[in-house]
Design brief:
The protein is an alpha/beta fold and 407 residues long. The protein is 30% helix and 25% strand. The chain folds into two domains: 254 residues, Alpha/Beta hydrolase fold, catalytic domain (Rossmann fold, 3-Layer(aba) Sandwich); 135 residues, K homology (KH) domain (GMP Synthetase, Chain A, domain 3), CATH 3.30.300. The protein has eleven helices and 15 strands. A hairpin with a 2-residue loop joins strand 7 and strand 8. Helix 1 crosses helix 8, helix 2 packs across helix 3 and helix 9 crosses helix 10.
């Protein structure tokens, strides 16, 4: 499954590292995944679940919270509130560049954060928690022997999963203010609670409390034999399979949504860096998404067409479409049009009909193959029509490009 890597701006102004796992074919839905406390987007559970969901047509955005993984910022300055705010930011980024997430998934403390953020993501129809605590304060048991020191000193280094992290008094104060009971009761979204009876990090009683507090539709699936981190590959695959099957009842596939009205054209084209490689971009226009890149020889990864490839593509497609429209209107026996294009630089002095006489000029060579039982006059007329395509006229006319910084 393709993975697009990029950055977006978090609530604190830091650049947060993200990965979007996409299907090889059409995207049926978008999901947002929140990882466990002090983990990261590339923790095995998150990566395996995202990949498995992508194989089922669900694109999954996972990202590193502030100060974790490849994201900017200091973990010590992050709080449960900032994590929730970053999830809302991630959903907004997905909404603006691809499609709003209709499925929210959270693992461990990420599950609590997803429950807290769900009300601020209106497009979300279904929420999944995996080994989540019913109260975010539960996470403090991981460093319960240092809580008094944190309150007394303001900031203390603790060992979590064998790694050092700094925890501040502000983190304790913030997490104590969050009660999920009201938010779960007012979720108004389908909820799937997944938990292992053998979880010795977050006890299964937490799943019971979440399930009882929630209103229908709600479901519970036991992850018998799985550990808290879903370190078993089969466990992650099972979780992904259940989520995909369960979510089908609640999220409407993108393909089934009504198409945009023709009056909405022309659509904006949004080009954004993926941060995967030096030049790679994700190009979005309406429901369509594609990669742009440079060839390997130019320092890229050749993951998609280059900028001039897209320019030639626009001209070639417009040429063929215009010829087809004319042929159909005139009932000409045109079977197929093939347009082959090439861009190059030439010396101005080599162009007799050009006004510019010095330096270099851009030249586009366009070769048109016309198939069908057409006579010479019909072929000649179609070649004339080729020069009347809108993109051809745009390229030949004076173009005004207005550039400004985003607000």
């Amino acid at each position: 499954m393709p993975t697009e890597r990029f950055q977006f701006t978090g609530e604190g102004g830091h650049q947060l590292a993200a990965a979007l796992d996409t299907p090889d074919g059409p995207v049926h839905a978008y999901a947002l995944f929140a990882h466990c406390f002090t983990c990261g987007k590339d923790v095995l559970a998150a990566k395996r679940i995202a990949t498995a969901l992508a194989a089922r047509g669900i694109a999954v955005l996972r990202f590193d919270f502030t100060g974790l993984g490849s994201s900017e910022g200091d973990f010590a300055n992050s709080t449960f509130s900032s994590n929730v705010a970053d999830l809302v930011r991630a959903a907004a980024h997905l909404r603006e560049t691809r499609g709003a997430p209709t499925l929210l998934i959270g693992h461990s403390l990420g599950g609590a954060a997803i429950l807290a953020a769900a009300g601020q993501i209106p497009e979300a129809k279904a929420v999944v928690t995996i080994a989540a605590p019913s109260d975010p304060v539960h996470v403090t048991h991981l460093f319960k022997d240092r809580i008094e020191d944190i309150r007394a000193q303001g900031k203390v280094e603790v060992q979590l999963a064998g790694r050092p992290f700094h925890i501040k008094r502000e983190f304790l104060d913030d997490i104590a203010e969050h009660s999920l009971a009201v938010r779960i009761a007012k979720l108004h979204k389908a909820l799937l609670v997944m938990h292992s009876p053998a979880d010795d990090t977050v006890g299964i009683d937490n799943a019971t409390k979440i399930f009882v507090m929630a209103k229908h539709p709600k479901s519970f699936v036991s992850l018998s034999g799985a550990d808290h981190l879903l370190s078993g590959k089969r466990d992650a695959a099972y979780v992904a399979g259940v989520i995909a099957a369960w979510a089908e009842r609640y999220i409407e596939p993108i393909a089934a949504q009504p198409a945009a009205a023709a009056s909405e054209a022309p659509r904006n084209v949004v080009v954004r860096e993926t941060r995967n490689g030096k030049f790679q971009q994700i190009v979005t226009t309406g429901p369509h998404k594609m990669l742009a890149d440079e060839p390997v020889a130019a320092g890229g990864q050749d993951a998609g067409p280059g900028p001039y490839d897209f320019l030639l593509t626009g001209l070639g497609a417009c040429t063929s479409m215009t010829m087809r429209m004319y042929a159909d209107r005139k009932s000409l026996p045109l079977d197929r049009v093939t347009v082959t294009l090439k861009h190059s630089k030439i010396h101005a002095r080599d162009c007799e009909e050009c006004e510019t006489r010095e330096g270099m000029l851009d030249q586009i060579d366009r070769v048109i193959t016309i198939e069908g039982a057409l006579d010479a006059d019909q072929r000649a007329r179609l070649m004339e029509i080729a020069d009347k395509c809108p993109v051809h006229r745009t390229l030949k006319s004076e173009i005004r490009i207005v550039t400004k910084a985003a607000d």
